[in-house]
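Lab manual, section 2.4: Encoding a predicted structure.

Procedure: take the sequence of the chain (217 residues), apply the prediction step described in section 2.3, and record the output as structure tokens. A sample record is shown.
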Amino acid sequence: MHHIKYLNSVIIKKNKVLSQDAKMKDESKDKLSAAKGTLTVRHLPADVDAAITAQAKAAGRSKSDFIQEFLSASFGDIIGNFSRSSELVALMDRELSGVTGLPLTENWYDAGRTLAENREYCQLLNIRNDTDLQRIMMAGVPWLSLRMQQLDSGIPLLPQGISLTCALFIEAAGRERPQLNIFRRHLFWYMDEALFWREIDAIRVARLLPALEHPDF
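Recorded output:
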């Protein structure tokens, strides 16, 4: 894990540059948000075209409207876009792959979060733009290895963006218990409650944050 400690010291020196870059991207996105574009997709496999046709019909949409809605939702996702385009996320993904010995999934779309989960993260952590995500990612770097140790070691591959997923959990761990109760119910409802709080507590201890009071489980 000394690799992450070393990278942390290097990355912190670059924080100002990276933050300025994220801010510039946010400003550029604001200017583009009102613009409209046209996209033509050629050479779709026949089975994919058939699947789109069937799903558009089931949704009561034309193929054009169905694809437009699908792309707007997918690429209107702040967390997904940042995860796929951030050099820091890519760097820390590779580092976590190295220290765990687990390969990363090959494709950029093989991420471990859904659009619904990303919307919840944005709402619960008040994420509005790339600058917020850059701050969260930078702040979480020292404890990424700890979060990885908490995850199930039986997984065969690490999904793309795993470092950002860890950083989001680390960020949430710093919140107060009422907010964390919502966080658990909305995003970690499937997880044993006692285990969830143990992992939160371990991260809070590492971050030198005040201990939370828990009822008996």
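Check your result against the sample. The chain has a mean pLDDT of 87.
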